[in-house]
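7TM GPCR serpentine receptor class x (Srx) domain-containing protein
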Amino acid sequence: MQVGLLVFIPCFAGLIMALIALRGCYKIPAMRSSFGYLTRYEMYLRITACSNSGSFYLFGVLFDIKLLLNNSEIFGLISTTLVPIVISVHFVMSINRFLAIVTPFYYNTIFSLKYRRIYVSLCFFVPIVYTPVFTWYYNCGYKFYHYGWVFSFIISETCGNKFEVLLRTVQSVLFLNTTCFLDFSTLILLVCFRKRVLKTKSPEIRKRELNFAQQVLIQGFISLLFLLVYSLGYQWLPGSIGENWKIFWTSSFFANSLHIFTIGTIFVFNAEFSKWLRCGNLLPARSVSVVNPVV
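Predicted structure tokens:
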């Protein structure tokens, strides 16, 4: 089925990009910080999401392996669990950038290694617990429906719109309201009061903070665009392309293509990553043996 290939390609590309970004988080000195720590876990999530969707669309949909198609609710459950985790991690990243600008003296304490682990653990633990419980309690079965998992359609969800309401609540309260407010506040501070809020920092740290803030702001804009397309894109597309294709382009394809744009933002707008890629540090350095010439 052609939809399998159309989704597998962005999943595979996103997987490769996430692996590259993850390596950069460990290798780039500037990314060995609290912000780099959060970016690292975001890449782990991207790798999991791309592997989950990519493997299903490749082997299940494209190669028509019945075992995977008949158990598609497992892949659907993993995907729906990852959504609030990704949103939560980005929320913490927005807090990280905001506090780095507003409270530089307390920033290192608030985002010490101990507290970082607590924040990330909560981002993972809460969705991993409540999503399966919610699924079991309401007898939800997120089975694959020809062109993707679309939770607003009764044909692809057996528990009505309860989970859709839950996801939209998390997205609107946690992301649209709080995260966008933090990102917008950070932008205002950087544009209007940059010299004042960063005057105590060295030029190198000042440049790094602006660099990280730029990455988060653009990633937030891309995620906001995704939510708009996912929520309203179905209504925007003309009916002439067919009902199934409208579902496919605005859900399965666009959701998995988002990984490319999000990770691409890091490569393009994070100066440290751009420099690292340009310098050819992508592959491990080869050890060169020096042979003394025979005189």
